[in-house]
């Protein structure tokens, strides 16, 4: 009887395992599809070489049949057509000179630095909630709302907040805002100049972007005064352009470097928190309080050919998309006063949809510039099938992992990163720099892309020839991209960036919800 029960239990267990195995995805089929796609990609990418090999073979065979007498006859003919030869030679020289004079100048990223504040302005979630309560302006319901946002934000316990807002009571004033700006900008620039050995007097172009703090004199003038830059420096101060302004600054510097030979361009990206903490109870404005933190970056660009050997990257493409003509896009991130005249930045519920549309437009422009021919053909064939033949098939999303080795996606928030990971079909490894930057430093606005690139370098991932895609979103609404190619393998042992002292602690697991202890 016992043996019969054992047999029954074994058979039922076998049946259960069989059902579970049948419910598992067909990994073999997915692996086969993966290798079919890879084979297709290599075939199309190398189609030109496959075509050239037989052509070159035929030419080589033909050249081998040419005798010495044939060469002598050719030289005799050229003697009688001396004028034609001279004209053709002059034309070749002229066209060659014209090409070298009009081709775009190559833009190199010599180096960059990210500001890491001192530990005394570190702000845990508990400290943030405590300061919010001590401000005495938020209702209990909105304190609970901020706590809920923080618990799901993806931010860690070591982000940084301005000293003026950590005091009790808080002291948000112009002097403190200037102090924060100087601390961030000068801290990043000092480190950059020390790393590159470039003298401040050698900088011919200066571009500064800060969206919400625009004093007079400007932030760019503050830098000119502090570092005593030369009198003919071309300085620009970009304000109100949101979290994507860092790449707008890079694009502007690139355009200026095209018309100013042998120049250095200094780009400074930052945001100022001191005067932009919202002291009201409009929930659409309170989200910014919870996720924005202090930070900034300085980037040195050059068009000098002599700087290529020591530069880290070459700027390959910049693509800018502006959806401001659409009212919904224009108003989805909007600075305004609430019903009690408190100024804040309101985030619309349409933000994710608008960001998706802007991204779609941006990658439609970027795709043909960077994607291999195999992906472009697949995209085109799918488009023809859907639009012309009305076939009910899903739109083909190009595999950008074939175009880039590294992705630096603006750490605007957990929801933004989740959506891009899903839509671009990126792995956790690709998303790691963005998620860890959000966790360690919070949303530092336009400078977050550089903390992400610094993380990638600190992990020793940047190899010579690697391509990196930086993509950022910002008010307006804008989506901007920059593509960089590594000119050398970056050795993390020789790097100085904000991750180096603690990079061994990352990546960390970031739970969906992290409970904040009540004080």
Automatic annotation (TrEMBL):
Pfam family membership, one: ACP_syn_III_C
Highest taxon of source: Eukaryota
Enzyme kind, highest EC tier: transferase
Positions of the FAE domain: 99-387
Annotated catalysed reactions: a very-long-chain acyl-CoA + malonyl-CoA + H(+) = a very-long-chain 3-oxoacyl-CoA + CO2 + CoA
Gene Ontology CC annotations of this record: membrane
Family as reported in the entry's similarity comment: Belongs to the thiolase-like superfamily. Chalcone/stilbene synthases family.
Protein name: 3-ketoacyl-CoA synthase
Lineage summary: Eukaryota, Viridiplantae, Streptophyta, Embryophyta, Tracheophyta
């Amino acid at each position: 009887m016992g043996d019969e029960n054992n047999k029954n239990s074994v058979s039922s267990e076998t049946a259960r395992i069989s059902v579970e195995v049948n419910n598992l995805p067909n990994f073999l089929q997915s692996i086969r599809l993966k290798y079919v796609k890879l084979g297709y990609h290599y075939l199309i990418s190398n189609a030109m070489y496959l075509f050239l090999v037989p052509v070159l073979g035929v030419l080589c065979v033909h050249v081998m049949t040419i005798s010495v007498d044939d060469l002598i006859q050719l030289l005799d003919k050229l003697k009688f057509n001396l004028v034609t030869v001279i004209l053709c030679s002059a034309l070749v020289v002229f066209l060659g000179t014209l090409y070298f004079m009009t081709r775009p100048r190559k833009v190199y990223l010599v180096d960059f630095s990210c500001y890491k504040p001192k530990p005394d302005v570190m702000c845990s979630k508990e400290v943030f909630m405590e300061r919010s309560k001590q401000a005495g302006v938020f209702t209990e319901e909105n304190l609970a709302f901020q706590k809920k946002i923080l618990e799901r934000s993806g931010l860690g316990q070591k982000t940084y907040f301005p000293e003026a807002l950590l005091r009790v009571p808080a002291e948000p004033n112009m002097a403190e805002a200037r102090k924060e700006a100087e601390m961030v900008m000068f801290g990043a620039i000092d480190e950059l100049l020390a790393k590159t050995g470039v003298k401040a007097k050698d900088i011919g172009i200066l571009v500064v972007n800060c969206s919400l703090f625009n004093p007079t004199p400007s932030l760019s003038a503050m830098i000119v005064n502090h570092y005593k830059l030369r009198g003919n420096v071309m300085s620009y101060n970009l304000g109100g352009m949101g979290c994507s302004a860092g790449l707008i600054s890079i694009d502007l510097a690139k355009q200026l470097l095209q018309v100013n030979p042998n120049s250095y361009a200094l780009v400074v990206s930052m945001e100022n928190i001191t005067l932009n903490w919202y002291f009201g109870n409009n929930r659409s404005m309170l989200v910014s309080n919870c996720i924005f933190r202090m930070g900034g970056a300085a980037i040195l660009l050059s068009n000098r050919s002599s700087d290529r050997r020591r530069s880290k990257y070459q700027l390959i493409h910049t693509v800018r998309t502006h959806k401001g003509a659409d009212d919904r896009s224009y108003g989805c991130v909007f600075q305004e006063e609430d019903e009690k005249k408190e100024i804040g930045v309101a985030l619309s519920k349409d933000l994710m949809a608008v960001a998706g549309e802007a991204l779609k437009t941006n990658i439609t422009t970027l795709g043909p510039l960077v994607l291999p021919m195999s992906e472009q053909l697949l995209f085109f064939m799918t488009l023809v099938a859907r639009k012309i033949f009305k076939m009910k098939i899903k739109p083909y999303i190009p595999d950008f992992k074939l175009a880039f080795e590294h992705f630096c996606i603006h750490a605007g928030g957990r929801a933004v990163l989740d959506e891009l990971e899903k839509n671009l079909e990126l792995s956790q490894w690709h998303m790691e720099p963005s998620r860890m930057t959000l966790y360690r430093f919070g949303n530092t606005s336009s400078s977050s892309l550089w903390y992400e690139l610094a993380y990638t370098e600190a992990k020793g991932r940047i190899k010579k020839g690697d391509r990196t895609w930086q993509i950022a979103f910002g008010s307006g609404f804008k989506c901007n991209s920059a593509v960089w190619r590594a000119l050398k393998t970056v050795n993390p042992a020789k790097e100085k960036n904000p991750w180096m002292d603690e990079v061994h602690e990352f990546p960390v697991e970031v739970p969906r919800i992290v409970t904040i202890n009540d004080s």
